[in-house]
Amino acid sequence: MKNFSSFRFLAIFFTIGATVLFLANSSGPAANNNFFTGAPSAGGGMESTCSTCHNSGSFGEPQLAITFSDENGDEANPTSYRPGQTYTVTVAVGHTMTAPAATGFQSQILDASNNVAGVMGSPGAGVQISSGPAGSGRQYAEHSTPNADSTFTFEWTAPEAGAGEVKMYVVGNLVNRAAGTSGDNGSTSPTILTFEEGTPVSTRNPGFSETRLFPNPADSPVSLSVRPDVAGDYTLRVLDIAGRELNRNSLRLTAGNETIAVPTTSLQPGIYLVELSGENGRLLERLLVR
């Protein structure tokens, strides 16, 4: 009788644990400190994939199709990137057998040193940009809710010239939307896209002859040095990695050299975006606050 009671307790314990894990990851694994892209992990070793928990369904292996389009809406070369170019990334998660009730995904883009490459932002419906392990500076694009439409989008601004080869790691998940992870199928290995560095965009920040954000990484007051091509009214914004506005200032700039104080005193350590925009130009810079 005692052994039966112990077994029953353990069964209930593991059922509750699986349900809690499912509910957490249904709103995005990285948002809940779970990282499953199959990429080299920030602390060494390799991340696991979704199939660690989601492996007993009848949907088959998730089939992933990833496309990139540039700012003009033209599909980009899938084997190289242009430094400074902003791309819209579309991740489609398909199935080979029974149709799932919903799908999810997680992705990150790393350079050859396994550091974050470029900046993710502007998530589409059902997508969020989440931070990686504390102090790693990593970003993850992932579902914010299981998506019945199976298609997810976000933007990626490629790193500056000199970053070299980058790799995108993507995994998908096919779920039945029942409590727990039973009956689902996650990627057993990541889909890996490798991009060589291509020719930089001709104008990194249209409307500005020179730009410099310093210090970066920052643990002291931050300044933005710019030379607008045209004098006028501009707006300085500080955004989080999901594109949410944290601070906004209106400025009147001349066509000469300008140095602008960037408000960072209230920012916690992490990755942010600094945007300066006006009628005649726009720049977007990545800032790492330590």
Automatic annotation (TrEMBL):
UniProt signal peptide? 1-30
Q: Does the UniProt entry include the keyword Signal?
A: yes
Q: Where is the Secretion system C-terminal sorting domain?
A: 213-288
Q: Which UniProt keywords are present, listed alphabetically?
A: Signal
The protein's superkingdom reads: Bacteria
Record-annotated Reelin domain positions: 76-169
- A Pfam short name: Por_Secre_tail
Q: Which InterPro entries does the UniProt entry name for this protein?
A: Reeler_dom, Reeler_sf, Secre_tail
This protein is called what? Por secretion system C-terminal sorting domain-containing protein
Native organism: Neolewinella agarilytica
